[in-house]
Fold each of these.
Amino acid sequence: MSESTGGDGQLGVGTLTLSSGENAPTTSRSLLGQRNFVVFWLGQTVSKLGNGAYQVALGWSVYQLTGSSAAMGVVLALNVLPQVIFALVGGAVADRLSRRRVIILSDSAAALGVGILAGLAAADLLSLPILMAAAVLLGTVSAFYGPAYAAMNRELLDQNEFRKANSFFSASGSLARLVGPMLAAGAYALGGAECVFAINAASFAIAAAAMTATKTSRRSPTNPSQGVRRELAGGWAYTRKTPWLVVIIAVSLVANILCLAPYSVLLPALVRLADGDIGTLSLLTTVEIAVVLLGALIIGRLRGIKAGTALLLLASSLGLGALVLGTLGSHLAMLFIGVMLFGAGLSFDVVENTLLQNLVPEHLLSRVYSVNMAISYSLLPLGYAFSGLIAGHLGPAFVLTTGGTLMLLTCGCAALTPVIKRLDSVRC
């Protein structure tokens, strides 16, 4: 890797390259032959499967207790808010301490919390306040877990393997979203919500055990004499002064609030407008997940991609998907095309994570992830709320068409910046 940076963290023009393109190909076998990566990846995949099942049982339990879809919105918001509030602290902790230890403690806390939830469900003591408390707990755990997890590739793999590893994680996450609901249905039929919650608790315990069995490279943590406040300021200052990070976070923020939030809220309404039913919605969700999985695997196998252009093309796919759904979503065939475009755009994370893991200094990596996470997620609750509210007055087509148009304009403006040309010199 050859990197030119100034004291302000900016990239040098045309001087940044990474040795992971044509010169250093990586095969699937090389990753799957590395014990520590495989143990970590499998443990986290099991955890994602448990989470996929948990989300289904959670939604069903909330509706059974309240009969209100609005209550589920409150539960989701209570899960996101702690992630926004505590993300910066979580990043500082992960950079200050052992990231491996942070993941072990986070997965263990989640296993304990969901295990207690399973016990309460078995005792028929489940209530909306308890589910809300569980949402807050898991959101808080995620605020610490997320920045540590996102930086683990730096401690497990060589730099030229990051993109393929990120494609593995993205693909396994998509597979978990596909299999998790089926697992939830079978477990719920056998033993009710408590059975699903118990499976999720066990999956967290397995992830913690896998992380315990994983050996990571030694690194130098941040200076413990620094206060947490100074460490938080360091991550924020580096992000603010690094133009390519500012552009990526801005694009992510716009995509979340104007495309992904409306898509999540309004897709069922579009299905009804197209005379579809729950089977249609389920099939659309399956198609989306399949495209995300395929996109992640393809990106993982490509060699020498232009990172800046790839990011904007994937983000533009989200905008185009929203535009298609907004203008032509009343036609069933166009619904599938729009959903496929969204699925393709969701591979954005593979390239984004690879760039961060390659370019951000080791001692700042978790804090920079936490800044990215806090800002990108900050307006999601508003996106969820206002998408439904505005659609109720002006219709889903207006919300999606406006969001898609603004997303494409954002990508067009970003393409005109020198940052994208600099990132295109990165072969990640």
Amino acid sequence: MGSRLLAVTFEADDPAEPARFWAGLLGREIVEDTGGLLLPGGDTQLGLRFVPGRAGRLGANRMHLHLTSADLDDQRRTVAAAISLGARHLDVGQRPEEAHVVLADPAGYEFCVIEPGNGYLAGCGPLGELTCAGTRQAGLFWSEALGRPLVWDRGEQTAIQSPRGGTKIAWDTWDGTPAEPNRQRFELFPADGDQQAAVDALISLGAARLDTRDNGTVVLADPDGTEFRVRPSPPPPG
């Protein structure tokens, strides 16, 4: 009756553009998915999915990615590769002493290239973290929903991770969290193929049902009101 996380979905004017960007930066393949383009993450790395919709907008994005660096040269190479693929530098008020680099992808979504020596992201792989605007309650909900233990729980900051390691997913309460509809969302599928049982389990944990799409996808909201979706079938192979 459990759910598995397929990917985090990003809306974009032209989904192919950010899909090519992230495939090039992370060295992943692009798989044609129902209504979108999927970059599978494997057992431990977070999958990324791009669908038609509104592009990201600075200050309105609820989620952003953190890439890791083995050393300073690796960080510089990652930044240079991102720029060559279409990223741009962003000033979001970071201080001069902060060593991470803030960029925006071609669809307008912020991401950070984290400096080497960051112990919190050690061993997480190249896509070290997805950080989300949200409360501790949301983090606890997603820990139960995905069967991923908490690996960080201090104040309103929480993070979960697969028992196998890999990309962490974190929540924190950001100032000025936007109230507008999400451009980014989690995409789930039932672990055993029983979508109704998976949806019922999520509702029992505190999710609210919002809608059902024509393709059978069920739209839900987590305890913070953040939209996510449960697909009726497993993802395509890849």
Amino acid sequence: MDTKHGASATTDPSSPEHDPTAVRRAAWAGLIGTTLEQYDFVIYGTASALIFNKLFFPNISPAAGILASFSAYAVGFLARPLGGLFFSRYGDRLGRKWVLVATLMLMGGATFAIGLLPTYSQVGLLAPALLVVCRFFQGFGAGAEQSGGATLLTETAQIGKRGRLAALVMTGAALGTALGAVAWIGAQLLPEESLMSWGWRLVFFSSLFVTIAAFVIRRKLNESPVFQELKKQHQAPKTPVREVFANGKKPLLIVMFMTIGISSQSYTYQVFMASYLKNDVQIDPTFIPKVLLVGAICGGIAAYFFGRLSDRLGRKPVYMTIVGLLVLLPIPTFLALNTGSHTLITLVMIVGFVFACQGAVGVTMSYFPEIFGSRYRYAGVTLGREFASIFGGGVAPLICAGLITAFSGSWLPVAIYMMIMAVTVLIASYFAPETRDRDLTDPANATDPITIPNPVLEKA
């Protein structure tokens, strides 16, 4: 194998990743799986912002109800690293496909179960307890979903096209957000009494259709060519998680710190902003899913665009440029939101989705798998992203809601929080390597990502 100039077994035109059918299946599998994950999270997050405080936490003040609702939301993110630890043991041993099917069924089942739950008025404290349990399993299943899809697509794509293909994972996330918004738009057409009694349940039951569609696609999925080569050479590790901590600590930390701030900004736009617009700006609640829908559509297009751009210019410069813009956006965002203008609100939410929710994360879908060696790639990406989720997206809506309450409705502390989180990402990104077109078959090509040279840059 000639690694000096970036050549590898994966550049052979006859290798499986150049089979159009295999690439198409991998693309659809990654896209539809993340669609389900994001759909589940968005319908739950929107419910947390709009109605769950009344259904499951009715005996406390509205502000406290929002905090309690977002706390239950955060449980899903606390469960993600546990799911990541569990499934990472198998993703690098049994294959990417096995995990993607298992996580799919767990997420879909938990979301469907939420629609069956009794409310506080029916069973008292048991209702929020059951909600937290379902949310836990939602997060546990999601713990290896996006990482698995990103790893599979990155390992399947041919060199020069990894960024755009892996970014389809975030296009799927945008599609999930859009579908979730459509589901809530439909539900809000119902009379208030019908929505609060049974309409919200239909939203959660609808996840069944997405789950079935994803399962049909994934059951025909091929294993990634890189993993097939790893198995053929008997290099699949027995303890990939242990190997990450033994040989991949630096890339693990870099991925974590590159994720925390982006995740915070992403879920602030996707979840907290809905609550802020409804309770603080006093926007008509029926407008909120509509603006989320428009933002998600634009974000999905942006994810593919930035992934493709990173194939041409490199992962690092594209990612750092996006993050630099995110440092500057929070204050203009809140100034626009507080005008109450539907046009300005839609515009800034589109910008938020384009850069924070899908754009930056779309680049990482190929960037992060390229950072790790093949022996522990799945485990490394999963653990890095999901441990970061505890301190990022999981608690961001809760922190933002807490800051709004603590500072008597002032949005400035929230904007400062968002800016600080973006700065931490910018610092972490500075220490990250450029990884475009790396040899993915190398079992440990990123043990020390700061000092390992990029073969493409060397060739140039």
Amino acid sequence: MRITAIETLLRGPLAAVRVHTDDGLTGIGQTAPYEAATSVGVLHTMVAPLFLGRDPWDVEALVDACVRHHYKFSGGFLLRALAGVDTALWDVLGKAAGRPVSQLLGGHARASVPMYASSMRRDITPEAEGERLAEAIAERGFRAVKIRVGEAMGRDRDAAPRRTERIVPHLRDALGDDVDLSADANGGYSAGRAIRVGRMLEEHGYFHFEEPCPFPDIEQTARVAAALDIPVSGGEQDTSLAQFHRMISTGAVDIVQPDIGYLGGVSRARKVAVLAEAAGIPCTPHCANDSLLQVFSLHLAAAQPACSQYQEWSIENTPWTQGVYAPLLKVADGEVAAPTAPGWGIVLDPDFVRAAECRRSAL
């Protein structure tokens, strides 16, 4: 089997990818969302030429060779584009084997994956946030939720005056003691401020504290993790496997959160999950929207032993992700069943394909 063509289908901030083979199989993938037009350009000029004519079963070796070939351009758009080809190739392999990708990644470690309801908003009052999270719990049975505190990369600023001090206790009061609560600072704090916020989270029984300090400053995050009892998580922005190894081995984080789109695909994210397993810490892949990345993350979480905790499920309505693929994943009783169909188990919506801007690289 050989790769004969690689197509991108661009619509707004999202680019789906199709990989075609000489056996007649077509795999579906997706680049990391946002600024997808740039990722598409990088895919066709820097990534596709290294994959055309090659055997899809060599996917991990091909991904590694691509990263090494472009060593002067590590991270950023190279990996965002590479994720599109990598994920499409895993779909090819699943279809060829007649198995879900999750089983190719090691087999099902769990029959279903528990999810937490993830809020992406800071432009919302504590009262309104509590109401909509309570609705999500009632409708889909979530047993855990995550809120936003501080301001993203905010240098100790808050989204609104004292919003953090108000929302942390309010959510505990509004949702009760039976719901596991988490808080995400998106790198908004210095170590000192993060420690003070973390102690407040501990006081109100929160489950984990995500990305308290700017992601490159792992020494500051390590200070926070050492000072607190609440588990500290991070990794969504990181793109280097060596950096993940440092984060895990030095104890900078208690929970590691690779993003399949940012990191370059499932092949590389799986390696982070294995590092976490070896270190005895949980892996919770970052997944901030309901694009195809939600499908990829489900397969990874179903397969990897380290993905043992609640996984991320965005509750936001994002119009640009609608009408892309089917069937859509569904949360029932706070969980999503492990995949059973070959490959990713989805097809692209014909209307999306017709509307998207198509670009093709071929032999």
